[in-house]
């Protein structure tokens, strides 16, 4: 009937009859549509043709039928897909109005749908119809349609205002189904429109839609914790999978773009409100996901994986929003206090979402650089960021849900928490200069030492980097307090690092920490003597634990079991060039004692290493001392070597000292060194 009314060659009388019959069917037999949902596209197509007919007599009635069809209890169901069909129906129809210069129809639509919406009209249909009209207006850019655009945007704002008012006290888990559906339609419609003027309540509705409909993680977390463990898959898995396949989730990127554009245009009050909502959402997702991951890990991997797909998309939303905040609120004109507070909150939010970062986004890096630059220049901001770090007790004790209290919590297996702490460990070295010694002692040191024992290499290495950064810092107002803390930390640092080597302590991290403390502690510090003594003891222990008697070739390749000892020896040799003159004699003495206790083939290999190290040294102050020490060490090693030992550096120097070689040999060796 609708198509017949649209045929140009049909008579006006025939068109009128068709339109009348169509209106009667929609008013009296709409229940039939519910019996077959597949008929809805055909019904809407018929209405679209009828609205575009050259006969206007039933135009208002058809509009009312279209708008009222969905809220009837026995009528067709309202759904997002049906809403999109309404949007495109009105887009096509309105294009026809413009092309046919039907000013009367445009005025009637504006009056009946946009300006004087009837109570019986379905709000989602009104939103979608207005969105369809706006799509046409944004494409045409005709100045004559600007008033209509204002009316359409105003109608959407009025509906959004009602949504905000009705959902003011609702949280993530208690959004009413009717409001939930309308939020989905409104956000989806806005993603299809194109340019849209700033509207305060639309902005707030988009915020709510993103957090409750597009990324509804907290609501799902609540369901999981309230569900009996045996019914998790049946109750939640299907719902999560359906959400991943839904239209609204697939349009998350476009909706996020509209949301960020609205933020740029928003007033300061609403900007601040939305910022707080987003940052709090990040915190809530972190807290909830920690518990849920603990519950589901190794039990419901499919459900956990699907949840993390939603969370990964939520991470993208947070990143793009934070970038918009950084560009438009952290400018030179903003007060410094606001810039600092906002920068810290962005960093904390990113730390909460770090577990869901699966790729290196340029927008993420740009935001990090922008906020870190501001934080590292301000002591109060640095302290605020550091103090947001979870406490030691929180890190090592997780509250387990009642139904899972028999589970043992291990902080090393908490991947969500580990990702967050790793974020802190990577950012803190950039601002450690501004962190007072008292704050480092109270807040950072326990966490730093805890995560030095983490089995994941990159996490442990990041902890060592924090130690290195602190050792290298020195702009504290109370420098004596900072130096005292450095010396105190060394004792536990060395103990903590060496007890995990080889194992969870990465050698690169250990070496960088030792080098940093040797370089930056005061000359002759007892902490340096203690560190060297422990390194020698550890090297001796590593060598003693390897049975090298039947494996003489091990000393030539340094592979396998001897590799940790070789790494420790390389570090000790490096320290010969780094320690101050007050510490050097002690290091040489302890290193000589270590070498003398080694098997003869090991002694020769190490003496060759020492020879090369000393020969390449450019330090004119300590080189003579090292040459003399190496000669003495070679002599001592030769005294303990059997006559069958290959003639290495130790043998050559001993021969020269005992007169077994030409008297010029010693001078030649000394000259080469």
Alpha-carbon distance between the termini? 104 Å
- Determine the mean pLDDT: 84
Note poorly predicted spans. 642-673
Radius of gyration: 37 Å
Task: Give the DSSP E fraction (strand runs of 2 or more residues).
Answer: under 5%
Q: Total strand count, please?
A: 0
Main sheet attributes: strand count, strand direction, barrel closure: none
Gross morphology: elongated
Number of H/I helices:
34
Question: How would you characterize this protein structure?
Answer:
Among the domains are: 214-377, no CATH class; 522-639. The chain has 34 helices and no strands. It has helices at 2-6, 12-28, 31-35, 40-51, 59-68, 80-99, 103-115, 123-140, 146-166, 177-193, 200-214, 217-226, 232-245, 247-250, 252-265, 268-296, 301-329, 336-353, 362-375, 379-387, 392-396, 415-427, 437-452, 457-472, 479-499, 507-520, 526-544, 554-557, 563-575, 584-596, 600-615, 623-639, 649-658, 665-672. The longest helix is centred in the middle third of the chain and has 29 residues, at 268-296.
How do the helices and strands line up, and which of them pair or pack?
Layout: H1 2-6, H2 12-28, H3 31-35, H4 40-51, H5 59-68, H6 80-99, H7 103-115, H8 123-140, H9 146-166, H10 177-193, H11 200-214, H12 217-226, H13 232-245, H14 247-250, H15 252-265, H16 268-296, H17 301-329, H18 336-353, H19 362-375, H20 379-387, H21 392-396, H22 415-427, H23 437-452, H24 457-472, H25 479-499, H26 507-520, H27 526-544, H28 554-557, H29 563-575, H30 584-596, H31 600-615, H32 623-639, H33 649-658, H34 665-672
